[in-house]
Structure formats: C-alpha cells, structure tokens
Amino acid sequence: MKKNKNLKSFDEHIDEEYGKKGTKLRDEYEAGFEAFKLGVMLQELRTKNGLTQEQLAEKCGTTKSYISRIENNASDIRLSTIMRIFQEGFGKQVRLTLN
Predict the structure, then answer these.
(1) How high is the pLDDT of residue 98?
(2) CATH code for the domain in which residue 38 is found
(3) What is the CA radius of gyration of the chain?
(4) Inter-residue contact 35 to 75 (CB < 8 Å)
(5) Does residue 5 lie in a domain region?
(6) Does 59 fall in a domain?
(7) Does any domain span residue 95?
C-alpha cells in the first residue's frame, strides 16, 4: 500500500496548529479541550440517566443555566460545583490527575 506523504497524524496536526506541548498556545488548547470533554461527559451521563438540565440542576442545588454552561464548554466553572453535580446528581466521584 502506498502512503500519502501529505497525510499527517492528529498529533502532528495539533503540533502544527497549536505548537508543541508546553507552549502557551498549546496549553490553552489542551485546557479548553479538557473543559469540552467535561461538558460532553456531563451531558452524556445526564441523558443516559434520563434527566433534563432542569431536573439535574434541582437535584444538585444549582440552576439549569449553570448545567447548560458546563455542557456548552464554559471555562469559569468552580471545581466544587462540578464535584457536587457529579456526586449529588449521579453518585459519582470526580478524580483529577496531573500530567
């Protein structure tokens, strides 16, 4: 099979677009991507459990708009609130890792 020399791996593409790991632009990209993943996880878990944003908010003592902000990649979300939403809303623990 002939390999196309113009094809790049995803990592190569990200390196070209945002710089190597450790650069400011790349770090900002990575942080934004983590916030995006958190929102997707929350939305998937919420829908899997058959909850609306409003129902989840009531269960956790927050607002529907706050749940929506998290699901839509807001960047100014408090860690304590995230932990409370997953704990009270789904009985799940949030674990953080440092790389």
Answers:
(1) 80
(2) 1.10.260.40
(3) 18
(4) yes
(5) no
(6) yes
(7) no
What does the alpha-carbon distance between residue 1 and residue 12 come to, in Å, rounded to a whole number? 21
Tokens of 45: 């878990």
pLDDT at position 61 = 93
Least Cα distance to 85 among 27, 50, 45 occurs for: 45
The conformation of residue 4, written as its DSSP 8-state character, comes to P
> What is the domain range of residue 26?
10-90
Other CB atoms within a 10 A radius of the CB of residue 44 amount to 11
- CB neighbours of residue 8 within 10 Å: 12
- DSSP notation for 72-95: TT-S---HHHHHHHHHHHHS----
96 or 3, which is more confident?
96
- What is the pLDDT confidence band of residue 49, given thresholds at 50, 70 and 90? very high
End-to-end Cα separation, the chain, in angstroms: 37
Tokens, residue 14: 């990200």
Q: Is residue 1 part of a domain?
A: no
